[in-house]
Amino acid sequence: MGGFRFFLLLPLVAFVACQYQPTWDSLDARPLPAWYDNVKFGIFIHWGVFSVPSFGSEWFWWYWQGSKDPHYVNFMNSNYPPGFTYADFASQFTAEMFDPAQWAQILAGAKYVVLTSKHHEGFTNWPSNYSWNWNAGTVGPRRDLVGDLANAIRNSTDMHFGLYHSMFEWFNPLYLRDAANNFTTTDFVDHKTMPELYEIVNKYKPEIVWSDGDAGPDTYWKSKEFLAWLYNESPVKDIVVVNDRWGDGDACKHGGYYTCDDRFTPGKLMDRKWENCMTIDRASWGFRRDAVLSDYIPTHELVGTLAQTVAFGGNLLMNIGPTHDGRIDPIFEERLSQMGSWLSVNGDGIYGTSPWKLQNDTYYSEVWYTSKGDYVYAIVMNWPDSDYLDLASPQPTQSTTVNLLGYGTNLQWAKRAEGGIRVFVSQVPVETMLDYAWVFRLYKVMPNGKHRG
User: Fold this and answer.
1) CA distance linking residue 340 with residue 319, whole number of Å
2) DSSP string of 382-448?
3) Using one digit for the tens of pLDDT, what is the confidence trace for 43-96?
4) Is the pTM of this model over 0.90?
């Protein structure tokens, strides 16, 4: 009997030992699920009532009635009748052109998607039980936008599906009262934020919970308690990843992976996985009718941002803003299509890679390095003017081979007298040169000790 009882207790002891406690020491020790580091490239989607005025920024409501920015106040005075409220925009958030299956195909060049479930305006893109008359099920679209896209992504692609959620709401009276009480009361957290988070995790099972709007201490938000439940008991406990925006001072210190700030680019290797969340539209996360062509980052620059981000060990989360009626604007669709086409040829140098010992080249500054097993990938942002490409950072060995992704034949190379490798590219067809960036795969090279990238 004693031996039998001991046998039964072993799994229980192992189970208890891996339970995460609601402390940062415990939560920060959780290993990041491997899938997230492998995927490298995701699409952020900012969509909400702010997509109706689609002017200036997704922070439209705040700039209009919070900070009272004259640019936004004048826009409203010139285009809407007196007494028009922000809530009046909600009925115009119609999404009648929203085709989740079409969106899934447009987004399919990436490996993961993060949709705004709720932004700082408080409107939920799902029929929440905790957002009375301010949700997509009862006003505006009158459908479950989150659920419809989640189903389309999972049914027709291999992308991972995640959700953004803003913890605070600009003008929610409960939040404003808690803030006025110096966050010593938690009515907003108890009746709004936390019920919503548990609701979307249980209902949609997101593989990413992307938190934002964390103005207030994490003790107020009860973030650590939520994360302990998420890691220990939730339906996504083994696969979910989270970011670092869980309360004042937590960014770049606690959570799953680091975002630190919007458009974060450390320019060095970090001791923790990180993500660069950035926008195709330089000025806004939401769709803007007042945008001009020069506001949109060209594809060459987007590819360069992806290459630099991955070279330093990060993921790139690139944002688009759909229209109020549910369309992905052609300029966003074009950028996504071009990124997808580039990755279909060059993805081997991005997906599943790790940073190399040197991150960029000392001869050509616009060359970024990644690695995978015995291979080093040189991502070259500008085609060389001559018949050869000189790289100072990789040192060839007797076993070295070089090929250009998308071009089947191995390329000739020579060792440079000053260190590094010279790759001869005159045999590459001219049509191959017409691209946003080129990825050279180098087999069995060493870092050049004379040059540090």
Assistant:
1) 14
2) S--SSSEEEESSEEEEEEEEEEETT--SEEPEEE-TTSSEEEE-TTS-HHHHSSS-EEEEEEEEEE-
3) 999 999 999 999 999 999 999 999 999 999 999 999 999 999 999 999 999 999
4) yes
